[in-house]
Amino acid sequence: MKTLSKSALVALGLSAACLAPISAQAEKKTDFKVCWSIYVGWMPWGYIQDSGIMDLHAKKYGITVEIVQINDYVESINQYTAGEYDGCSMTNMDALSIPSAGGIDTTALIIGDFSNGNDGIVLKGKDALADIKGQSVNLVELSVSHYLLARALDTVDLKEADLTVVNTSDADLVAAYTTPDVTAVVTWNPLLSEIEAFPDSHKVFDSSEIPGEIIDIMMVNTETLADNPEFGKALVAAWYDAMTLMAKETGDEAPARSAMAEASGTDLAGYNAQLATTQMFYDPADAVAFAKDEKLIDTMKFVAQFLFDHGILGDGADSPDAVGMAFPGGKTLGDTDNIKLRFDPTYMQMAVDGAL
Q1: pTM for the model
Q2: Residue 105 carries which DSSP code?
Q3: Count H helices, E strands: the chain?
Q4: pLDDT confidence of residue 24
Q5: What is the 3-class SS of 213-278, one letter each residue?
Q6: 100, 341 Cβ separation under 8 angstroms
Q7: Maximum CA pair distance of the chain?
Q8: Which helix (H) or strand (E) holds 308?
Q9: Is the pLDDT assigned to residue 16 strictly greater than 50?
Q10: If 0-12 CB within 10 Å is exposed, 13-18 middle and 19+ buried, where does residue 253 land?
């Protein structure tokens, strides 16, 4: 449609495979910045900043954390990759293809949700996916939208060669769709809902048909996390405070959700509709279980193959295994000498254990 130190390794329970090499001289610091972009599952980050929840937990750990909204999703990842931010909300696929393939060791600190209908393909004037053949399709190229398109085409025996992909910033997609020339788009909520609402618009495929494959995560720089565990603890504690608030809000009495709805350009009903197609992990135990599930490895194997097939696993990648990944329990995927993406539930487990 989003990095750790240790008082004691044993206490945190970090497996050797999930740890990045730590430099001899730790880079301790007290001021951190993370970024996010508009998406239903990432709206809590803006609320966490604006409500003071982040400041509350950062102060507890003697640090400051600034949470910055960036309007262009890919640009937010690029800025994280360039070192402007210590963390960024992004999907599993985009983490592998941009920072990790670019050599930036990155850790999945908080698995927030997976898209269960929040990403979709919309056609103007046509109501069947097969009608996309021969059309120009506007999307954020090489993002999860591109991935979703490829997965969808497989279901109707089409290939990308059967259409034309037009790279379009997420910030420009809605405006582009209002023009006569744009007849097919792939995007995520809230843009998806906005585009669907236009006359003669038809959603012909969405991520509920590939559940658990488009995962929304707060990714952080592995070395920063390793040198500064307080950063990880503060972020995770703040996130699950917001999750607790969201999970218990019902009916019209929903101040946290209402604030998120307004910030994303919709109302409470619209935002709740988007949440209905998002598998949120309000309970950290559910996120930990998802991280430990063998299916995650299978998903990332599929993602790596897609990226390799599209030539976006980094310069010189000679196979889908070019970028190594680490998973709970010491499991790995790809080049173990080049592990740059780590799914480590340690800090989410600390939330489960009440250790934050």
Answers
A1: 0.83
A2: -
A3: 15, 14
A4: 37
A5: CCEEEEEEEHHHHHHCHHHHHHHHHHHHHHHHHHHHCECCECHHHHHHHHHCCCCHHHHHHHHCCE
A6: yes
A7: 61
A8: helix 294-309
A9: no
A10: exposed
Under 8 Å between Cβ of 42 and 115: no
Torsion of CA 155, 157, 160, 162, to 10 degrees: -140
Q: Are 297 and 327 in contact (CB under 8 A)?
A: yes
Going by C-alpha positions, the residue among 285, 282, 323 that lies closest to residue 304 is: 323
**DSSP result, 34-90:** EEE-S-GGGHHHHHHHHHSHHHHHHHHTT-EEEEEE-SSHHHHHHHHHTTS-SEEEE
Q: Regarding predicted confidence, which is higher, 251 or 85?
A: 85
Percent of the chain with pLDDT over 90: 83
> b vs e for 52-79, b when ≥16 Cβ sit within 10 Å of the residue's Cβ?
ebbbebbeebebebebbbbebbbebbbb
- Quote the CA–CA distance of 253 and 317 in Å, as a whole number: 51
Q: Do the Cβ atoms of 85 and 224 come closer than 8 Å?
A: no
Side chain identity at residue 8, one-letter code: A
Task: Read off the tokens for 250.
Answer: 């019902």
Task: Let me know: does 67 contact 218? Beta carbons within 8 Å.
Answer: no
**pLDDT grade for 26, boundaries at 50, 70 and 90:** low
- Name the 3-class secondary structure at 95: helix
Tokens of 149: 């398109």
> pLDDT tens digits for 128-140?
999 999 999 999 9
Contacts of 6 (CB under 8 A, 6+ apart): 12, 14, 226, 229
CA distances from 41 to 148, 241, 306, 319 (A): 18, 15, 24, 32
Token duo for residue 132: 């996309």
Query: Which tokens is 273 given?
Result: 């509709």
Is the pLDDT assigned to residue 35 strictly greater than 50? yes
CA dihedral 170, 171, 175, 176 (to 10 degrees): -40
Can you tell me the distance from the alpha carbon of 194 to that of 210, in angstroms, rounded to the nearest whole number? 22
> For position 142, what pLDDT does the model report?
82
